[in-house]
Design brief:
It is built from 17 helices and 19 strands. By secondary structure, the chain is an alpha/beta fold. A six-stranded mixed beta sheet has the order 9-8-10-6-7-12, with helices on both faces. Strands 3-2-1-5 form a four-stranded parallel beta sheet. A four-stranded antiparallel beta sheet has the order 13-19-18-15, with no helix packed on it.
């Protein structure tokens, strides 16, 4: 419970900034910037459409009161009169439903159990009927979307708490799938070890934060950060792992050799179905034929990186998802941005949504789905905290080797609050090293 409830936008934004809250759903956008938007609706995103992961559901089961408090705070900050808590159809969260029923300004809504239900553009449409313009963001249609873990951190920020830990799922092809809470900066291999899930990385692969959108990680010493929602372990011969392991050059050569321009990647693309001008098959054609035709390539700027077209759709086993996202990255590096335009959902959209069960089947991970138990908070001997764990510029270190720190102390600050977030010590101890990470030995 918040001792002194802030009522002004400035006070809420300031506390969120000092706490280092960023988007916990994956993008890591600094939440204090999102809180400066003007909106009539704020959506708490609890859809969690990635296979196997249950971190958001756990938060909505155990910490629902704080999530609702965070939602109310974002409503105050943005001037919104309506708050929505969005979960997927079929989820039963009775305590949350009872709590929401006592607040007339907040409503619980269920969206179709499809992938990617948690994409904020898709969620805005399902929850409000509004379409975010292509190249735009939810505040363009007076909506702000925040992950439920983010809202939990917003609530805690009001009483002086900072983001030092992360609730995450450890799941997949392992002995003891579980939920845990770990300090930011704890190494992946340490997490697997203490939860009884040591794996042979010659036989199994590590995916950070998801099967579909997750990143293949070949460095088990890599630390978790504020955006890490899961560690997923899969066999090396899993089709998703094999696709993610392909070098970009190999993907391009395969596109040139095999892509039959069937258009399925485009016809099932979630953003294309929202009326955005993205056509993955045209991007594949342009890359394969080594053309620089702007109208073909520009659509990549609208790619959300959901992975659906490559992992689920392509009948030839190609990777339009990864190629599109690579093109998007190159265009952004060249300073090219998406041209804003109004959009209208395509007539066949409802019939082309992909059910969650189909994702489980196609990716081969359905056999690993099970209820995850929470195994407690981890306390590692060493953490290595990234100074860049958010969108924008990395924080500037404010500590030196040999400094003593207490959990929650500021160890990094952005040069400009508009382009970054504050970073805090996740354990108490002594700073052992400072580079693009701050290494702290727990004492």
């Amino acid at each position: 419970m918040i001792a002194t409830f802030p009522t002004s936008k400035k006070e809420i934004v300031d506390r969120i900034f000092r706490a280092g809250v960023v988007g916990a759903g994956g993008a890591g956008f600094p939440t204090h910037l999102k809180a400066t938007a003007k909106a009539d609706t704020v959506i708490a995103n609890g859809c969690e459409c990635e296979p196997l992961i249950q971190s958001d559901r756990y938060v909505l089961t155990v910490h629902f009161e704080e999530v609702l408090e965070g939602l109310r705070l974002m409503m105050i900050a943005t001037g919104a009169s309506r708050g929505l808590v969005a979960i997927r159809e079929g989820q039963q969260l009775e305590a949350l439903e009872d709590a929401v029923g006592k607040d007339r300004s907040i409503e619980l809504i269920r969206v179709p159990d499809t992938y990617p239900a948690g994409d904020e553009h898709i969620l805005v449409y399902e929850a409000t009927g509004r379409i975010v313009p292509q190249g735009g963001i939810p505040p363009d249609v007076a909506v702000v979307v925040s992950n439920v873990n983010t809202l939990l951190n917003v609530s805690r920020a009001m009483s002086g708490g900072s983001v030092t830990k992360r609730i995450l799922s450890i799941c997949g092809d392992i002995v003891k799938p579980c939920l845990t809470e770990a300090p930011i900066g704890m190494a992946i291999n340490d997490l697997l070890e203490v939860t009884g899930n040591r794996v042979d990385l010659e036989q199994k692969a590590v995916l950070i934060s998801g099967v579909m959108m997750g990143e293949l990680c070949d460095d088990p010493t890599r630390p978790i950060d504020k955006r890490t929602s899961a560690i997923v372990i899969l066999p090396r011969d899993n089709r998703v792992v094999m696709a993610k392991a392909l070098p970009l050059g190999t993907m391009v050569r395969r596109a040139a050799s095999v892509c039959c321009q069937c258009r399925l990647c485009t016809e099932l693309c979630p953003r294309h179905l929202m009326g955005h001008a993205i056509s993955p098959h045209r991007i594949m054609r342009a890359v394969a034929w080594m053309t620089d035709y702007k109208d073909d390539l520009a659509g990549a700027l609208l790619c959300s990186g959901c992975g659906l077209c490559g992992i689920y759709v392509c009948p030839m086993g190609l990777s339009p998802d990864r190629i599109s996202f690579a093109v998007r990255t190159r265009l952004l590096e060249r300073g090219i941005r998406a041209e804003p335009a109004e959009a209208k959902a395509r007539p066949l959209r409802a019939s082309r949504l992909v059910p969650h069960e189909r994702i489980l089947s196609r990716t081969g991970v359905g056999k690993y789905e099970q209820e995850l138990d929470f195994v407690g908070v981890q306390r590692p001997a060493v953490v290595r905290i990234p100074l860049g764990q958010h969108s924008g510029k990395a924080a500037v270190p404010r500590v030196r080797p040999g400094d003593k720190v207490i959990e929650g102390d500021i160890i990094g600050e952005p040069e400009d609050p508009r382009f970054g977030a504050v970073v805090h010590a996740s354990v108490s101890g002594v700073v052992a090293a400072v580079d693009d990470h701050v290494t702290i030995e727990s004492r």
